[in-house]
Design brief:
Elements: H1 13-17, H2 23-35, H3 43-62, H4 68-95, H5 102-129
Helix pairs in contact: 2-3, 2-4, 2-5, 3-5, 4-5
């Protein structure tokens, strides 16, 4: 009788990409744009919106079929991102006296969507994996 071995490639590229808090890039982009006085009008703003939406889809893909620890780490990053984005908007409005414009609000909406939809997606996948009828 021959022995069959199944080997898992846990160190693959997708596994590594799943550990990166991608939504932090959206917050970092907004902060860097403000610090470097980069106007988000025009091409830079369109690139920002496109990257933010792509990151939202990546984060949604990451939130499916994850372990309990990965879920908690993902929640930590989501809460941190919301706190950083809220701090940025508060700083812009109250300290700098600048009205946040469309790109700030769009980025904040995407960050909130990530924080709200990912736990729902993880819960839905867990129910599906346990074959619970919803």
């Amino acid at each position: 009788m021959s022995e069959v071995r199944v080997q898992s490639n846990q160190g693959g590229v997708l596994s590594m990409l799943g550990k990166i808090p991608w939504m932090l890039l959206v917050v970092a982009f907004l902060i860097v744009a403000h610090v470097m006085q980069i106007s988000l009008e025009g091409t830079a703003g369109y690139v920002f919106i496109g990257v933010a939406i792509a990151v939202l889809f990546i984060e949604m893909f990451k939130s499916g079929d994850i372990s309990a620890m990965a879920f908690l780490v993902d929640q930590f990053w989501a809460v941190l991102n919301v706190a950083l984005a809220t701090g940025l908007l508060t700083y812009l409005y109250f300290v700098e006296g600048v009205e946040p414009h469309f790109y700030h609000w769009a980025g904040f909406a995407i960050i909130l969507a990530d924080a709200l939809l990912n736990p729902f997606n993880a819960f839905r996948m867990a129910l599906r994996n346990f074959d619970v009828q919803g």
